[in-house]
Amino acid sequence: MPDLLLELRSEEIPARMQRKAAGDLKKLVTDGLVDAGLTYEAAREYWTPRRLTLDVRGLTARSRDVREERKGPSTKAPEQAVQGFLRSAGLSSVDEAEIRTDPKKGDFYVAIISKPGRAADEIIADLLPGVIRDFPWPKSMRWGAASGPRGVRYGEIEGRGGEALRWVRPLQSILCTFGPETEEPVVVDFEIDGIRAGNVTYGHRFHAPGPITVRRFDDYVARLEAAKVVLDAERRKEIILADARNLAFARGLELVEDDGLLEEVSGLVEWPVVLMGEFEEDFLSIPSEIVRLTIRANQKCFVCSFSSLQRGEVSAKRTEGAQSATPPLEEEGKLAPHFLLTANIEAKDGGKEIARGNGKVVRARLSDALHFWKTDQADLPDLGRLTASAEKFGLDLKKPLDQRMARLDHLGVTFHAKLGTQGERVERIARLAEELARILEKQGLHPTPDLRSDPSLAGEGKARTAPLSSPSEGEVARRAGGGGHSFPTLARRAAILAKADLQTEVVGEFPELQGQMGRTYAALQGEHPSVAAAIEEHYKPQGPSDRVPTDPVSIAVALADKLDTLVGFWAIDEKPTGSKDPYALRRAALGVIRILVENGVRLGLSKWAGKDLLSFFHDRLKVYLRDQGARHDLIDAVLASGASDRTPAGQAARAEASERSERSAVSANNDDLLLIVRRVEALSTFLDTEDGKNLLAGTKRAANILAAEEKKGTRIAAAVDPALFAEPAEKALYAAVNQAEKEAGEAIGKQDFSAAMRALSALRGPVDAFFEQVLVNAEEEAVRANRLALLARIREATGQVADFSRIGG
Amino acid sequence: MHLSRSRLRDRRRARALSDPFHPAVKGSRTGAVFDPPELSVTRNLPDHLHPSRSFQGLILTLHDYWAAYGCVILQPYDMEVGAGTFHPATTLRSLGPRPWKAAYVQPSRRPKDGRYGENPNRLQHYYQYQVILKPNPSDLQELYLGSLEAIGIDPLLHDIRFVEDDWESPTLGAWGLGWECWCDGMEVSQFTYFQQVCGIECAPVSGELTYGLERLAMYVQGVDRVYDLNFNGLEGADKITYGDVFLQAEQEYSRFNFEFADTELLFRHFADAEKECQALLEAGARPATSSPHRGEGGSRSEPGEGASPHRLVLPAYDQCIKASHAFNLLDARGVISVTERQNYILRVRNLAKACGEAFLQTEAGGMNMDKEVA
To answer: Cβ contacts (< 8 Å) between A149 and chain B: which residues?
Structure first.
């Protein structure tokens, strides 16, 4: 069985696109071959920066002959219909069609269309130009004279206008051979925009630039290898990783592994040669994350750390007086002043010049980073002009981060044209964070005391845990906090400094470090640990899988930041639409939800969010709960119930509840997301019980009857009149409803939704008995109206928890 | 020079057209045979002007190489620009169907990169060597590598790499695909196939090479501090360094860029340049009815065959360059927020687009070009 070898050689393909492109090539070609009636045994794709290669084995040499019969019109059909049939079947006259006889319909025409099989190389030659022309590059380009306007000649080549071939970078040559193992393969002959397929490729750009004639995959790989091209990316990765580890090991160091970087680097070389370079230890005074990012992002080099495994060896070397790095023990795991680069050539001098050159660049990059790092900790010029801003925010202009915040405000840097400056935004967030801190404080959340400032607690430092929520610890916190360290004060301070690092040089250079740098600089200027943490964590969570902040100060600032964003963009009507969410508002809303729910924080959002924003929160909450495995219908049922809490008993319960807690238990508009979640949970548990299922059935039955009667216009009494009861079951149900409604209302007042469910479950027996023993549709109108009113009470009682009519099953 | 910020910002903010009166190079052919000058190119240059010894020798060597290839060697554009691309010889000449080959040095200003002369690698004013070949020849990568060999970089001793760098200039409404060219990990050039400039599809595509001259010179001279570059190649008392020429300027301009540039004035300059650009584009589009130099009574003609050419493209484009530079200065002063930034970029882009469209209505832009004579 013959094999197909295809190589598309181009100028350097971006590393990040190579793997997918090779996969696309395999799929498009093999799918096309199969569609054309060929089969193959195996196919594998390869790639380097300069080529995509496809190796297809065991291809059938010809596609099968195909015979197809097409049924035509009756022989008595009008001439027009017959002609149409002939045309569509590709026949030139009616003589070429057969006539068949059908016992019912009589004689009719049949066209026999037979397509002979085609040679595989013909099929390939037909298929490939289309595959290449329509290749799904994420970004493609035109080039050269062919990209000129149609009809304009540039030397030998004529412009092809919009039809010029597009490729990721200029396509230089196509190699395509086809043939069985035992015979000389043939070149599959096709041409695209002047590039004619052949059997020639070229080796490494510098080591072996000459042409290489190729027969099939086996000699292709071998010849490329001889021409300093490792075709298989996985092998290049193995080489880089093994060599990098060995080079590090030899120095008593450990490679800091980085899969993304390895993938990228393997796509930048055809002949990987790993070399080690050095930089001055002074640069290690920069936080290691900045060092790593600087070297990775700009230089695509790996960094090394002092190895813990090889301590023995290093110490041994130290005693021998070896000149390699001899890290003190406490530096284990810290970055070493070495980096590993991957060159693409075997240099004449063994790579000395290359390592030296790369070292120069790394040093230049690191001296930039060091410059940024130091500048950020130094005074800004012209502090005098920042005093007004400093006063506005209570900033201490002796501190670097305070200066940056003052400058952010002073420069009037716009946040959004319609939402004012960053300074105004920070003011709003600070106010809101302070307000939220007071609310959280009442729920028993208190920041961790700053152990540095309270010697009496210092000894407990190691046992410290993040949030303190039990009253006794809260006491400790308050005692430790004192005047300047009250929760609202800390929240305000953190909010004021939260955006200051946008004015730092390091964040200007590496925007991905925003927050993290603010925290680092805050710690350096002696801020309370919770304040420093909140500066970083107020951006969290960044998505469904990101960590949710738990420190109360972080919670307050994170909520304030997100709420301000959401409220602001809602106010200027910049809501997400469809797939467009340029300000990541969905993420912000999910962040609010996760912070509230996962920390068990209660917050009435309607204080800030209007009706529309609140329903956006509800939509996001549904998505969140669904992802957590909650039933969609239960969420809807709970959300629908909030507004239906209108019974006298329910109102009484609410009034009572209001006295107990500051906020009403079941808020009329479902603005407390935590409560919604708790209700969904309780409802879900309840509905799994026998009582729950039956009560659901009973309530639904009541609701259906009511709906039917309401539709007919039957009168339903405004209130139940016990005097009109005729049956004991009526009386029993009435008593049970009153009791259940009261108990459930009270339980809801205490946010004890399980108790509310238990209270409702007492209704199950009386409801069942009622439907068994009582005819709702009594003859006497007043009795009937009264019984319907009783049914309405069932609906209302259960409605305190959820709108049962929205629950499925 | 622009070491590490490249990914954060549109790197070559503008690219422009050169000597406006230079005719398109009509005789050139893409297929023309080119024998690159010998490896040690400096054929007519004395030893002290070898690129490994002198900064100006590096420039002369590149001139020699690209002149031998057939480029017109132009002089810098006499305006403040952020990059060689802003020179009209690139921005405008990359539009339209006429072939074009040019090379020139362009002083480039990046106000934000000023370091008061204290950083060994970073300058707010530096030189780019710019080559534009339209349409790009099919062996442009080899030509580029030949130029590196010409200045003494041996590709079997140094690790030369083409690393993805999709170029986009939001201010110019331009984008292209290409690479950063690395030499031992240092970005020494940018290599771009223009796809769109001034919002207009390039047909044909131009190849653009931009060499960072100081960086290349530091490399071939083996110098770690840009100010230590030998400028004239002489030694002893006759030696002039890069620092002798530019250190004071770097210090003064850093002060200006970061501390003293009057932002209110700059905002006004921006607005004025924008207004002037628009006015010139409008005026130049009107046929020459009352021009004192041309007596013909201009009847308004329809666009297309016989339409009157635009008469003020280049002066209008100068205003676009001015607006762009005012914006760069304001940006360096840190008074433009991220969102406002977008808006300013958009305003410059609108000017650039309008200039590009007007350029197509000129002789150099290919108006009335006979299709067979390209």
So the answer is: 97, 203-204, 371
Say whether the peptide bond before residue B135 is cis (omega within 30 degrees of 0): yes
**Which residue is closest to B263 within chain A, CA to CA?**
A411
Selection from A198, A201, A243 nearest residue A221 by Cα: A201
How much is the CA Rg of chain A, to the nearest whole Å?
Answer: 38
Q: What's the one-letter identity of residue A396?
A: D
Q: What is the pLDDT of residues A188-244, one digit of tens each?
A: 999 999 899 999 999 999 999 999 999 999 999 999 999 999 999 999 999 999 999
Cis peptide before A541, with omega less than 30 degrees from 0?
yes
Strands (DSSP E) contained in chain B are 72-74, 100-109, 125-134, 160-164, 167-169, 174-183, 186-197, 200-201, 207-212
CA distances from B275 to A635, A731, B270 (A): 58, 86, 9
3-state helix, strand, coil in chain A (%, to 5): 55, 15, 30
How far apart (Å, rounded) are the C-alpha atoms in residues B225 and B247?
12
Q: How many CB atoms lie within 10 A of CB B19?
A: 17
Instruction: Give the distance from CA A428 to its chain's centroid.
Output: 29
Contacts of B157 (CB under 8 A, 6+ apart): A347, A348, A349, A353
CB B229 within 8 A of CB B52: no
Task: Kindly tell me if the per-residue pLDDT of A167 is higher than 90.
Answer: yes
| Contact: B29, A154; criterion CB under 8 Å | yes
Buried (b) or exposed (e) across B301-315, using 16+ Cβ within 10 A?
eeeeeeebbbbbbbb
Instruction: Provide the ipTM.
Output: 0.85
- Judge whether B76 and B103 are in contact, CB under 8 Å: no
CA distances for A676 relative to A140, A276, A809, B167, angstroms: 50, 58, 21, 50
Nearest to A153 among B224, B258, B374 (CB): B374
Mean pLDDT computed over A408-421: 84
Distance from CA of A147 to the nearest CA of B (A): 5
Widest CA span in chain B = 68
Dihedral over Cα of B162, B164, B170, B173: its sign: positive
Cα dihedral value A745, A748, A752, A753, nearest 10: 90
> What are the distances in angstroms from CA A41 to CA A56, A187, A249, A794, B323?
8, 21, 43, 69, 63
Q: Is A305 left (phi over 0), alpha (psi -120 to 50) or beta?
A: beta
Q: Which of A762, A748, A772 is nearest to A794 (CA)?
A: A762
Q: Tell how far CA A19 is from the center of its chain.
A: 22
pLDDT at B337: 67
Residues of A in contact with B155 (CB under 8 A): 205-206, 345
Residue type, A282: D
Does residue A721 carry a pLDDT above 70?
Answer: yes
How many Å apart are CA A126 and CA A123, to the nearest integer? 5
pLDDT digits (tens, 9 = 90+) for A520-553: 999 999 999 999 999 999 999 988 888 999 999 9
Q: CA nearest A423 in B: which residue?
A: B337
- B309, B361 in Cβ contact below 8 A? yes
Taking Cα atoms as reference points, which of A677, A670, A609, A615 lies closest to residue A645? A670
> Would the pLDDT of B294 be above 50?
no
Closest Cα in chain A, distance from residue B193 (Å): 7
Closest-CA residue in chain B for A508? Answer: B8
Task: Please answer whether residues B55 and B231 qualify as being in contact, where contact means their C-beta atoms are separated by less than 8 angstroms.
Answer: yes
In a mutational test of the B interface, the residue from A17, A51, A141 whose CB has the highest number of chain B CBs within 10 Å is A141
d(C-alpha A54, C-alpha A23), whole Å: 9
Report the mean per-residue pLDDT for chain A. 86
Min Cα–Cα distance to chain A from B158, Å: 6
Residue B313 has pLDDT above 70, yes or no: yes
- The gap between the terminal CA atoms of chain A, to the nearest Å, is 59
